[in-house]
Design a protein that fits this description.
Structural class of chain A: alpha+beta
Helix content of chain A: 25-40%
Strand order of the largest sheet of chain A: 2-1-3
Number of helices of chain A: 2
Strand content of chain A: 15-25%
Largest sheet of chain B: none
Number of helices of chain B: 10
Low-confidence stretches of chain A: none
Number of strands of chain A: 3
Order of helices and strands of chain B: HHHHHHHHHH
Strand content of chain B: under 5%
CATH class of chain B: Mainly Alpha
Helix content of chain B: 55-70%
Shape of chain B: globular
Oligomer: heterodimer
Low-confidence stretches of chain B: 1-18
CATH architecture of chain B: Up-down Bundle
Largest interface: A-B, 13 and 13 residues
Structural class of chain B: mainly alpha
Mean pLDDT of chain A: 90
Mean pLDDT of chain B: 91
Distance between the termini of chain B: 48 Å
Amino acid sequence: MIFEVFRQEKKGQAFAHAGSVEAPDAAFADAWAREQYGRRGESEALWLVPRTSIHAITEWADEFDLKYRRVDGYSIKSRLAEARERASAKSSGA
Amino acid sequence: MSGVGSTEPQGHAGLAGVSRTKAERAQQLLSLADDELILGWRDSEWTGIAPTLEEDVAFSSIAQNEIGHARALYELAAVELGTDADALAFDRAPDDYRCAPLVELHLLEWAHTIARRYLYEEADRVRIEALMRSDDTELAGLAAKIDREETYHRLHAELWAARLRDEPRFRSAVEELWPYALGVLEPELRPELARRVGLEVVPAQERGAHTPELAELWDEMTEVRRSIPGAQW
């Protein structure tokens, strides 16, 4: 069995994928992950998830070219600069 | 108690006697430290060649922990003997080491290696529990500290033992090493070990005489230290 290992470095932080452990069962995965991902006190907590329990999404339908839904390519830089100018003119003019 | 020759009057393995001399205390500490150092050395021989990558990391890490326990024990003994931990670990002649024959054996096969790890952990647990009740508060404190780390060693050893329990190779390795495992403990603690492992007390491979394997190990272990006497590393 392959277990994906997620590691929390400090209390309150999000768990991040750290790697995996191949073990015959959850008990061995526990023993091995402790040594591999925690023996130097580098982890606050670990999550071990059987790889088969992970529902992965890798396919994305984009048949109709949905670029128009995205904001990239629509520059607001110049408009932001103008807005800032207007704001500063207003406050200094008052 | 039906232990082999259990003549010690005090309950705690002859480990806790208040009337112990400094020399006796030093010898006790050296027995403990030598067991941990030599087994740590033996187990580290599997680094890079353990059955799986994960086990390799775990086994090497446990071996390092045992050497760490040895250092802490040598430091206590060093105060008693007016020397330092490195001198005790590396500068004694092979015959002066106090380790049990169990830890000296050069085991080149995984079933035997894991059988020794399992038997040693079980024996060490009985011994540590006795030490934690000892009147020697300094040693009792260190034993408690060691015990917290040993929890994970036991978890690891017991997993393997449970998994291999019905494997003939593992069973015969346990039986072969059993008299050696008994030799890790003082006679009065042996019935407890037998109870936990589910075997009968038999005549033990006693501490004191060494196997020829120890001299070979010592030769390799102390080679760098002997190459430049007195150097600081």
